[in-house]
Amino acid sequence: MSSQEIAKTGSQQGPSVANGAGEWLQCISCTSAYSVEMVRYHCDCGSLLTVARRQPWHERLTPEILLARQISSDPLDQSGVWSFREAIVSLPRQSIVTHPEGRTRLYSRSSLSAYAGVERLAFKHEGENPTGSFKDRGMTVAVSQAKHLGLKAVACASTGNTSASLAAYAAHAGMRAVVFLPAGKISTSKLAQALGYGAICLAVEGDFDAAMTLVQESADKLGLYLVNSLNPMRLEGQKTIIFELLMQRGFTVPDWIVVPAGNLGNTSAFGKALLEAHAAGWINRLPRLASIQASGANPFYLSYVDAFQSAHIVKAHTVATAIQIGAPVNYSKAKAVITATNGIVAQVSDAEIMRAKAAIDQSGIGCEPASAATLAGVQQLRQQGVIRPSDDVVCVLTGNMLKDPEAVLAAANNKVRPIAASLAAVEAALKS
Questions:
Q1: Which of 28, 184, 224, 288 is the most buried (most CB within 10 A)?
Q2: How do the residues of the chain divide into helix, strand and coil, expressed in percent and rounded to 5?
């Protein structure tokens, strides 16, 4: 799919399968179109699907409307996803399952600017979503779609964050949640969330990619609705990270947007959002996207360095478990996005990730390891001269600090100090 084709998020009329709001599922490789009322994740040709909509949809969603919704008491307007509903998918109000989610903040810290060597550096913290990660933005759309279609059971494969989000939204909707987890490869806190929200948790022998294969087979054979980012509805929700970021900045475009890269859902969604915002006239140019992978889970990086001649698959292993994925399902979409935005793919080591995480934590912001790949990537790209000191850069932090406490405790230089219950012991500890 070319960059021009990505930018065409619809047509004047749309195909005959378009719904009343002019939305349909479009193959990213051929001309096939399908109804959004169908449960479908692939085209008959085998390629991925995307949500397309009739032009000019943006006339129903102007910056003025968006700003008015910021002070509205309507529950949908209070969601950082559904406040952009005309650009997501049209669903009856009674079908929408929202906590609400989104409306996450932008942070700047002089210590982190100094760490990266970039003067204008900000962090959009998606860890402020209800279950602690960006996944809630996509999950509200996917679970709402499942409810609209009358489905009773939803499922995902997960390294942790997706399972927590799915479990919460399924509980809210009164649906059965089934999560497929790579055995022994999920943090305690993420597992506790999924269990606590009431999901059926299945520990699959093997890695995330084995769990992903099994959940797809189960969705096909057992009637489960798949809500991984293979589902195009998920990416529609994740687009709102970018829409909201642009609105927070008064629709001033940064030079770079930097994102952790695992299954490549965010890379794909961010590119789609930017191209749609540009086509709508919200922004006058495109920023460059930088997708940052862990060196131990780097298939997209390997494809990038060989000019995308092939989709690489690796045996993934990294401390950044949220992006510990060796066969990303959104490769084709992400490849097109990197091309369309003149983007870049980089890899950083676990040591670089944990040093960057310590810097983010000690700035008072905090994040999970995968999120810190962004700061590590900015520092590396600055040292290579790709990013300039004066560039305007936004990093997206995808999960909060409490998502992976084992990694924090293992890497922390600041250890708990046992003392006697006496003032003298306190005084001695403070002096040491």
A1: 224
A2: 45, 15, 40
Which 8-state DSSP code applies to residue 224? P
113 three-state secondary structure: helix
Q: Whole-angstrom Cα distance, residue 239 to residue 267?
A: 10
With 0-12 CB in 10 A as exposed, 13-18 as middle and 19+ as buried, what is 358?
A: middle
Q: Is the pLDDT of residue 259 over 70?
A: yes
pLDDT at 31: 83
Do the bridges between strand 49-53 and strand 23-27 make them parallel or antiparallel, or are there none, so unpaired?
Answer: antiparallel
Tens digits of per-residue pLDDT, 94-147?
999 999 999 999 999 999 999 999 999 999 999 999 999 999 999 999 999 999
Provide the sign of the torsion angle of the four alpha carbons 104, 108, 109, 114, taken in this order: positive
Q: How confident is the model at residue 8 (pLDDT cuts 50, 70, 90)?
A: very low
- Assessment of whether the complete model's pTM goes beyond 0.90: yes
Record the tokens describing residue 114, joined without a space.
């100094």
Q: Is the pLDDT of residue 4 over 60?
A: no
Hey, what are 52's tokens?
């397309």
Question: Using CA atoms, how far apart are residues 366 and 123, in angstroms rounded to an integer?
Answer: 11
Residue type, 193: Q
**Cross-strand bridge partners of residue 394:** 122, 257
Q: What angle do CA 44, 47, 53 make, to 5 degrees?
A: 90
The two beta strands, 33-34 and 256-260, are unpaired
Provide φ and ψ at 413, rounded to 5°.
-80, -25
Q: Mapped to the 3 state alphabet, what secondary structure does 284-349 carry?
A: CCCCEEEEEEECCCCHHHHHHHCCCCCCCCCCCCCCCHHHCCCCCCCHHHHHHHHHHCCCEEEEEC
Amino acid at 401: M
For residue 125, give the 3-state DSSP assignment: strand
Number of helices (H), then strands (E), in the chain: 15, 13
